[in-house]
Amino acid sequence: MTAKQKDWAIFLPALSTFYATYIGKQRYGNYVDPARIPADYENGIEGMNWLNADQAYFPYKWSLYSAGHANLDVNKFDEKEDMVRNRDRKNTFILGDSGGFQIGKGVWEGDWKDPNCPKAAKKRRQVLEWMDAYADRGMILDIPTWITKIPTSAAATGINSYADAVTATNINNNYFMQNRNGNCKFLNVLQGENHADADKWYDTMKHYCDPTKHAQPFEGWAMGGQNMCDIHLILRRLVALRFDGLLEKGRHDWMHFLGTSRLEWALLLTDIQRAVRKYHNENFTVSFDCASPFLATANGQVYYETALPDRAKWSYRMQASVDNKKYATDTRRFGVGVVQDKHFKVFEDSPISERTLMKDVCIYAPGDLNKIGKEGRTSWDSFSYAIQMGHNVWTHIYAVQEANRRYEQGQSPAALVREVFDRETFTGIVDEIFATSDRDKAEQIIEHHNKFWLQIIGGRGLSGKKAVNASTMFDVFFEQKEPTQEYHIDDSGLDEGNLDKLELEVENV
Fold this sequence. Notes:
By secondary structure, the protein is an alpha/beta fold. 37% of the residues lie in helices and 11% in strands. It has 18 helices and 13 strands. The longest helix has 27 residues, at 382-408.
């Protein structure tokens, strides 16, 4: 998949700790019994490691990994971290997420607006050390403004207002800038839950990327809050960055969009990247991440088809995967079996699924006991999740790349074409915005097409400015053929099929 990536915005799978644990721990012993590994996995579990160009079943050099799920003790060996820590640094790329989400959820407690708070200070130091040790680029430890809407989180972190979030982020930014060792290039995170707050945040934080004001300024941008889901605001911000001298070659070459899963956004971000490269900074690179392949599996779902009909909705489709103990001895290929037995009308294979048999997913037969010594209702064990996560990751990468190929050939999702007297395309408008060297004119072009921006569904599932306070929801991101079925957690003793629970399972191993 690395070789198939052209000059498109780069999708970064938000690597799950649950998945990485299988790669890392298998390197140092039989975390998974060799008899349990599918016979056609010629490189064993290491073949599921897309960062290993020599052994991967689908080599792909890019990923995001969050400090919020990592072992932050860089002096302590940890097998579970090996996929990230012990990778080929010259030929792979890891973007480190700082863990601001953990602060937002109240998991990392402390008074973050107090620079002398021991809990916050310790976590701040650990995150920076981890980023400098293992990430190629990383996000600063921002405090998301939405934290103020969650009373328990506000109480746990001392963040009760927009001003508190700004104060705490300034503390973290100053610490990172003064104590970084230079190994990791940092992205200045832009937050704000509406246009006004986003503008204020930018005006307050932009100096951290200004080489005229700092000896070690940050080297790029990460778009959070409203900045990652509102194309109108994004274009305004890019124009501001350009004319403020903060989108310069060799200094501000990277921009990342947090939690972006819709296929239309893979295309419009490619259009933005190409326009900026063409008219301003030839090194400018856009990336975006999501945890959807892992989240889907944790909810019992598997990707089965990429749908790209011209002038209609583009999507990767998923539905509840097969879970039946009768398949424990079934030697049909997984994709063949689920179609033949009418679980799916169609199933698009991946390099993982084509090596996988029905019995490799549905491992438990009637009467078999799971790892806690009980006969559960599910035919899955924990490794069944990892197998399907690998399939889902490949399918998501493929969908993004195939969508870009189709887009280049003149096909388009409906959201990126506006039918008026003369057909307007997102590609053409963005090119026009960046072609001009006049800031006022660029801003006028953006405002002229305000109605177009409103038809583009935001990265959080709503249209244009209506996405101000939208929250990420699983059922908004995907087309699901059926409701999520019973969660498959009996073998692990967990009672809820979500990614957080799966992450917790491996973190406690």
